[in-house]
Design a protein that fits this description.
This protein has 397 residues and is an alpha/beta fold. It has three domains: 65 residues, PUA domain (Archaeosine Trna-guanine Transglycosylase, Chain: A, domain 4); 111 residues, RNA methyltransferase domain (HRMD) like (Transcription Regulator spoIIAA); 191 residues, Rossmann fold (3-Layer(aba) Sandwich). The termini are far apart. The model has no long low-confidence stretch (mean pLDDT 94).
């Protein structure tokens, strides 16, 4: 195992148990580190500090696995995965078979996530440093969980590389076991949803919003609900199943809204009783404003950044624009629900964006609920960067 000296700032952060080593002038002096090397990090006095996984091509050049002396073998993986499994017993997964089994730094496997979808596992690597250890990981996953199949979901930059080489953009690879049916039916809070483990950048369902969909179901009965950036309609299905008077789902993708209709039917909800609007969110909001439409609950959960022919959206600045555009459609006493998964915007900054939007239209908002990831997305107290999800419910005065 190679030894690498780190600078005083990294020594301080390692003392605080932060799991990342960020590239700096000290890491640039490391002698020929290779992707996937297991290294011993030391201070200027050669005192061992931690064992880390190396990726010299990344801004995060080393990800801490634990104290000095770690061996990245089957026993180590088994210990980590057994702890992750026990933690999920606290996650409230009754009537749910779509959830996160391993949440990277939160489960001591930095840069690696594993999601479960109805007995299938989906691995995603945020650094190629894990590639050499995949065979051992797969072996232990088979031993502990006996999944029907194990997929690897490729990240966008990986799919671009594949496309350049072969002309095909393959988003997932089946690593072991049998292929999942297309679509694959999964259960969340007793509701059913179609997912696709083989095609697309996403599977069609984001498990990190599971608790929030359950919360929405407790607030929505008899109300008119507007779901913006609806994607495949998981929030819309939850609202309709809980007795919403009418659900309006808006997304720029006709493909996603067709899946949303299928999800309604899957849960014996008649999609014809609700509205599905394909279009740019801001353009559709303007039409609704002109038509004098009103809603009791409005939710927006946009991607961190997106571009359509008519507009460009980013969380920074875009959130205040969304708030101001939706508040005029919201009844007094109605609920405005904003959510974002943008890692670089913290909760305080996000609420400031909502405040800015409210001030722009001369409206008063009172926040009644703030939340983040559910229990199957644990975050170490020493790793604030892991608290990426913001979910805020406010009441319009």
């Amino acid at each position: 195992m190679n030894k690498y000296q780190v600078g005083p700032e990294t020594v301080r952060m390692l003392g605080l148990r932060h799991p990342w080593v960020i590239a700096d002038k000290f890491t640039k002096e490391w002698s020929a580190p290779k992707v996937g090397d297991l290294a011993l990090l030391c201070d200027e006095n050669n005192k061992p500090l931690a064992t880390a996984l190396i990726d010299p091509n990344d801004r995060v050049v080393a990800r801490v696995l634990g104290p000095p002396g770690i061996k990245l073998d089957a026993g180590w993986f088994r210990n980590r995965l057994q702890k992750a499994k026990r933690l999920r017993e606290q996650a409230g997964l009754d009537e749910t078979d779509a959830y996160r089994l391993v949440n990277a730094e939160g489960d001591g496997l930095p840069g690696l996530t594993i999601d479960c979808y109805a007995g299938y596992l989906m691995i995603q690597l945020y650094t190629p440093a894990w590639d050499n250890y995949l065979p051992t990981l797969l072996e232990v996953l088979q031993e502990l969980f006996a999944p029907l199949g194990i997929y690897r979901k490729l990240r966008p930059q990986e799919t671009r590389q594949l496309e350049a080489k072969s002309g095909n953009k393959q988003y997932s690879r089946l690593l072991s076991g049998q292929p999942a049916p297309t679509p694959l039916e999964v259960k969340e809070n007793g509701l059913l949803f179609h997912t696709d483990l083989a095609e697309g950048l996403n599977t069609g369902l984001f498990p990190d919003q599971r608790r929030h969909r359950l919360d929405l179901m407790q607030r929505i009965k008899g109300k008119r609900f507007l779901n913006l950036f609806a994607f495949t309609g998981a929030f819309s299905v939850a609202a309709a199943a809980a007795g919403a008077k009418q659900v309006t789902s808006v997304d720029v993708s006709a493909k996603y809204l067709n899946i949303a209709r299928d999800n309604f039917s899957l849960n014996r909800l008649n999609p014809k009783r609700h509205r599905f609007i394909v279009g740019d969110v801001f353009a559709e909001l303007a039409k609704m404003q002109q038509a004098g439409e009103r809603f009791d609950v409005i939710l927006f959960d946009p991607p961190s950044f997106s571009t359509t022919k008519k507009s460009q959206f980013s969380t920074r600045g875009g959130t205040s624009q969304l708030a101001s555009a939706t508040l005029s459609l919201l009844e007094p006493g109605g609920l405005l629900i904003g959510s974002s998964n943008h890692q670089k915007v913290d909760m305080v900054s996000y609420v400031k964006e909502l405040r800015r939007g409210a001030i722009e239209v001369g409206c008063e908002l009172r926040t009644i609920y703030r939340s983040g990831q559910p229990e199957d997305f644990p975050v170490p107290v020493c790793f604030p960067e892991g608290n990426y999800l913001k979910y805020v419910i406010s009441v319009k005065d």
